[in-house]
């Protein structure tokens, strides 16, 4: 992963005037950077509210615990490879709430699908409504964006259908999996059955369309706050990008951060640089400077807050790595706290 990050950074900085980049960063308007920073805190708060809502079928969750777990999860994803924070986040929550970590993990998968659908809707609004002039001026690129968006939308819809089927009857799913245990008696089969039932229970929002629509409604202010943060940095660097243009950049950044590098280094930067230079004619110096600052503002709040909240319960970087490895090796092991009937505090490292 480090080699991939280094390679992407090499491409990102290739033939770039670093002195020019420094000048552009120094000239950036601080009031707009401060505005962008505030939007990053706002999207953390909205994420926690949305997650708290999705977790309700599993039991009541305090907002403070949902917010802390969200920050710790994003901090872990910034420091560890392979999106480790997505596993650590439900583990962290399960030790502070009477909650199944497996069920909580299911809500995170649902979150990611809601995020993808929201980004696609905003991208479609740019391509077909707000960015019609851009589409007419770039027909080949616009066609490619439409094709990629349609493909992603079809995959998202297929994933939602699969999750809907799994969520329909958790007990029936568990009984189906237990048939494996009858054929091949083992502790592993029993663990898989329990894990499958808890995972399906965590998809409770899918069993109530009204609840799913409310969760979807939360997703729009969340991603609009992210778009505002991107636009704020663009204004700070005097990049001629309309607010709706941030929807296109946001979609590119989603692709960039899909590259599994620590802290999204490389993929994030190069996706932003390509977006503002290819689509909006920005100079390399401005594009690189803005990408560096936007990346710092994007991961900074969650990283600092997450490390602070983790330190409060004695969880250091080594402990985060242990939790991630444990989750990856044994998905049902995190439910020990839930099975004992009481929450536990994390004390690792």
Short description:
The chain is mainly α. The protein has helices spanning 2-13, 18-27, 30-54, 63-79, 85-94, 101-130, 132-137, 139-167, 170-183, 187-202, 209-236, 245-257, 267-278, 284-312, 317-329, 336-340. The chain starts with a helix and ends in a 9-residue tail after the last helix.
Ordered list of secondary-structure elements with their pairings:
Layout: H1 2-13, H2 18-27, H3 30-54, H4 63-79, H5 85-94, H6 101-130, H7 132-137, H8 139-167, H9 170-183, H10 187-202, H11 209-236, H12 245-257, H13 267-278, H14 284-312, H15 317-329, H16 336-340
Helix pairs in contact: 1-13, 2-14, 3-4, 3-11, 3-14, 4-5, 4-14, 5-6, 5-15, 6-8, 6-10, 6-11, 6-12, 9-10, 11-12, 11-14, 12-13, 13-14
Can you write the helix and strand succession as a string? HHHHHHHHHHHHHHHH
Instruction: Summarize the main sheet.
Output: none
Q: Briefly note the structural class of the backbone.
A: mainly alpha
Amount of beta strand: under 5%
Proportion in helices = over 70%
